Amino acid sequence: MLASLLRIILLTATLKILERGLDKGPIIPCFLLGVASVLDLGSTIHIYNEDKSAEIADYKALESDWEVTGADLYQALTLYGEGLRK
């Protein structure tokens, strides 16, 4: 119940800020989401694992980790190669 109320407050605040325009003030939704996350004891705001089995969840997590690792390696090697050319 409290989490649902916090979610409604967060969405309302986000819509008000978007109506006002992002360039006219600080972006508060991230702060409100953080506050709502702290108060969300039922863990209803963030859903991390919707897979049917732990094995599928592990596979997806490992795949994602290696994709990020590969992108980081590619960026590092590209920057290193550009530095050698200078």
List the helices and strands and how they pair.
Elements: H1 2-20, H2 29-39, H3 54-85
Helix pairs in contact: 1-2
- What sequence of helices (H) and strands (E) makes up the elements? HHH
| Overall spatial form | flat
Relative helix content = over 70%
Average of the residue pLDDT scores: 77
> Span from first to last CA?
60 Å
- Radius of gyration from the CA trace? 20 Å
Low-confidence stretches: none
- Count, helices: 3
- The tally of beta strands, per DSSP, is 0
Percent of residues in β-strands: under 5%
Largest sheet: none
Helix/strand structural class: mainly alpha
Relevant terms:
single chain, 86 residues, mainly alpha, 3 helices, flat
